[in-house]
Specification:
CATH class of one domain: Alpha Beta
Number of strands: 10
Mean pLDDT: 93
Oligomer: single chain
Structural class: alpha/beta
Number of helices: 7
Distance between the termini: 20 Å
Order of helices and strands: EEEHEEHEHHHEHEHEE
CATH architecture of one domain: 3-Layer(aba) Sandwich
Radius of gyration: 17 Å
Helix content: 25-40%
Length: about 230
C-alpha cells in the first residue's frame, strides 16, 4: 500500500481576469521508504503539491490519502492533529523558535505530543547527535550557522518518528557545500532508517540525489523517473 496516494488533485486561483492552474489533475503514489524530489521552475506547482500533501492547502478537486488517512475529509483541527502526529516539516527559512536552544526546539514538538520532559530532552539530544550537532544542544539559533540551524530543523522533523518528512527548498539559504552535506544526511537517514522524504527543490544537487524524480510544469507532472 502506498504511503501517499494522490489522485486528480487540481487547484486554481484568480489572477486578474485569468484563472491560473496551480495544480492540474496531479496523480502520484509514493511508497513507504521513498526519497522523492519534486522538481520544476518557480510556478510549476511543486510547492503547492507539497503543501497539499502536508494538509496545509486543500485542492478544488481530487482525493488524497496519506498514511492511511483521508486528508481531505478532515476538519482543520483534525488536519493539525494529523500533522503533529504523522508528519515532519523542513522549511527553507528553518522556522526555529529564536529564544529556544537547539535542544528545546527539537523537543518542542514532543512536548506538544505530551511526552514527559526527561524523555523528550533525551530524544532531542539523540537526534541532534544523529545530525552531527552533539555539543550544540544549548545554543540558540543566532549562535549557529545556517547549515547548523537547518540540521536542527531536520532533527526536529525526525524526533517524533513521523511517517513522512516534507521538505520545501531545504538548501535554498545554504551555500553549495553545506547544502550538499544536508542532502547527504537526508539520504543517509532515508537509506539507513527507511524514513520517507518528499522534497520540493530546483537545486541540481537535490535533484541528483533523488531516488524518484518528479518533474512538474504548469501544474502538471510531465516526467517521473526512478533512480
Amino acid at each position: 500500500m502506498a504511503l501517499i496516494r494522490a489522485d486528480g488533485l487540481s487547484k486554481g486561483y484568480r489572477s486578474g481576469d485569468s484563472l491560473v492552474r496551480a495544480l492540474d489533475g496531479v496523480s502520484l503514489d509514493v511508497p513507504q521508504g521513498a526519497f522523492v524530489v519534486l522538481a520544476g521552475r518557480s510556478g510549476s506547482g511543486k510547492t503547492t503539491l507539497l503543501n497539499m500533501l502536508g494538509g496545509l492547502d486543500r485542492p478544488d478537486s481530487g482525493s488524497l490519502v496519506v498514511a492511511g488517512h483521508d486528508v481531505l475529509r478532515m476538519s482543520r483541527d483534525e488536519r493539525a492533529a494529523f500533522r503533529l502526529h504523522h508528519l515532519g516539516f523542513v522549511f527553507q527559512a528553518y522556522n526555529l523558535i529564536r529564544v529556544l536552544t537547539a535542544r528545546e526546539n527539537v523537543a518542542y514538538v514532543l512536548q506538544l505530543r505530551g511526552m514527559e520532559k526527561r524523555q523528550r530532552l533525551a530524544l532531542a539530544d539523540r537526534w541532534l547527535a544523529e545530525v552531527g550537532l552533539q555539543g550544540f544542544e544549548h545554543r540558540r539559533p543566532d549562535q549557529m550557522s545556517g547549515g547548523q540551524q537547518q540540521r536542527v530543523a531536520v532533527a526536529r522533523a525526525l524526533a517524533a518518528s513521523p511517517d513522512l518528512v516534507l521538505a520545501d527548498e531545504p538548501t535554498a539559504n545554504l551555500d553549495s557545500h553545506t547544502g550538499a552535506n544536508l542532502i547527504a544526511l537526508m539520504r543517509h537517514l532515508n537509506e539507513q532508517q527507511g524514513i520517507t522524504f518528499v522534497t520540493a527543490s530546483h537545486d541540481p544537487s537535490v535533484i541528483a540525489a533523488a531516488r524518484t524524480l518528479v518533474t512538474m510544469q504548469d501544474g502538471k507532472i510531465v516526467d517521473l523517473r526512478e533512480g
